[in-house]
Amino acid sequence: MPQHGGQESPAGRSKYREVVLGLDPITGIANRRLFEYQGDKAFSMAQRHHDDLGLVVFRLENLEAIAVNGGMPRAKLVLQTFAAQLADNARGHDTPGRLSRSRFGMLLPGAREFGAHKFAVRLLSVLRDALDTDAHCVISAAATATNSRSCSAFRDLHEHATRRLDEAVSAGGNRLVSSFCQ
């Protein structure tokens, strides 16, 4: 929406990015809708070419406490740092995304479960270094993958990863749970 002088307002640019481009306005990575769209495409491609698709999902356990104790700017900084590390560690064909307020994901085309697990371990290590210790971030993660015969749709793979993430959250602390989609 151009304002006087043909310039767009910052709010207008943000809304355009969020709605049209499918980018999360706080982190600049794919929002849930774009992530799921890319997941459907990647799953279809993997199925068509008998290839694998890895998926890693992450959850920042205490984002609300960070917002209460450090304020919203602190919580926003934690989200932006998390997203930046996710994007910086992505290969060219990977898709990082913010799935909800405190959940993130990474699509890993061509990755088997072990590759998705290794990515999650590496990223958790990077995140521990990148996020300030005074933020007291607790991160849970789940890694899964499928060959094109194990799941019938990306939604199945995503649901499987979410169940594994819930297991990691229930276990407490910084946890990673991995398993094949079966």
How would you portray this structure in words?
The protein is of the alpha+beta class and about 180 residues long. It has one domain: Reverse transcriptase/Diguanylate cyclase domain (Alpha-Beta Plaits, 2-Layer Sandwich). It is built from 6 helices and 5 strands, in the order H-H-E-H-H-E-E-H-E-H-E. The chain has helices spanning about 10-20, 30-50, 65-70, 70-90, 115-130, 155-170; strands spanning about 50-60, 95-100, 105-110, 140-145, 175-180. The chain has a 5-stranded mixed β-sheet with strand order 2-3-1-4-5, sandwiched between helices. Helix 3 (about 65-70) packs across helix 4 (about 70-90) and helix 4 packs across helix 5. It is globular, with a radius of gyration of 17 Å. The protein starts with 9 loop residues before the first helix and ends with a strand.
Task: Please outline what is shown here.
The protein is of the alpha+beta class. The chain contains six helices and five strands; from the N terminus they run ααβααββαβαβ. The model is unreliable at 1-5 (pLDDT under 50).
Characteristic terms for this protein:
alpha+beta, Alpha-Beta Plaits, 18% strand, 5-stranded mixed beta sheet, 182 residues
Task: State the fourth-level CATH superfamily.
Answer: Reverse transcriptase/Diguanylate cyclase domain
CATH class: Alpha Beta
Q: Strand order across the biggest sheet? A: 2-3-1-4-5
Please tell me what the overall shape is. Answer: globular
Q: From the structure provided, what is the oligomeric state, counting identical versus distinct chains?
A: single chain
Quote the average pLDDT. Answer: 83
Share in β-strands: 15-25%
From the coordinates shown, what is the CATH architecture? 2-Layer Sandwich
Largest sheet: 5 strands, mixed
Provide the succession of SSEs: HHEHHEEHEHE
Helix content: 40-55%
Tell me the span between the first and last alpha carbons: 47 Å
From the 3D structure, determine the CATH topology.
Alpha-Beta Plaits
Instruction: Outline the low-pLDDT stretches.
Output: 1-5
Number of domains: 1
